[in-house]
């Protein structure tokens, strides 16, 4: 695995790292695997919440949504040179604590350029499966790589209180997403 200079990274997040960052390839995309601070202090930061990072331009967070319950780095889904994220939340779409995952397409500054919510009420998930109250869809999120061959990273999303087969048996949803145009 080659070491790349921080200046070669495709986003301003490069200014938070040392002189060298370990880069690996995920589905042909460069991905930072480690970030090191030489003196233990933050060099730059961007908070994503109901008040910061422009998420509020796309979706409202409510009390007890637990936005950030889980997250996964997706690589650069929209090919703009910035890393994109999947963020789990235990919100109430489909019932109390049914859960959701937010796909956050980020600008190089770390601000949200566009967001897409996956839940019982958003992104057609309900065409395939129903999320119920207390399923806690989004309690865990992982990038799977491109499992369906469409050149877009797909997701595994945990719902540890899903009741299929019995009370709180749990489930993992494999979600193949469409690319953002």
What does this structure look like?
This protein has 181 residues and is mainly β. It folds into two domains: 30 residues, no CATH class; 121 residues, no CATH class. Helices cover 2% and strands 34% of the residues. The protein has one helix and ten strands; from the N terminus they run βββββββαβββ. The longest helix has 4 residues. The chain is globular.
Total number of β-strand segments? 10
- In total, the number of domains comes to 2
Nearest-integer average pLDDT: 80
In what order do the strands lie side by side in the largest sheet? 4-5-6-7
Please give the alpha-carbon distance between the first and last residues.
31 Å
Note the overall shape: globular
Radius of gyration: 17 Å
Task: Output the structural class.
Answer: mainly beta
Helix content: under 10%
State the helix count.
1
Name the poorly predicted regions: 1-34
Q: Which H/E pattern describes the elements?
A: EEEEEEEHEEE
Strand content: 25-35%
The largest sheet is:
4 strands, antiparallel
List keywords for this structure.
single chain; globular; mainly beta; three-stranded antiparallel β-sheet; 181 residues; 2 domains
In short:
The chain is mainly β and 181 residues long. Helix content is 2%, strand content 34%.
Write the topology of this structure.
Layout lengths: L2 E3 L14 E7 L2 E4 L37 E6 L8 E6 L10 E7 L5 E8 L5 H4 L8 E9 L8 E6 L11 E5 L6
Antiparallel strand pairs: 1-2, 2-3, 4-5, 5-6, 6-7, 8-9, 9-10
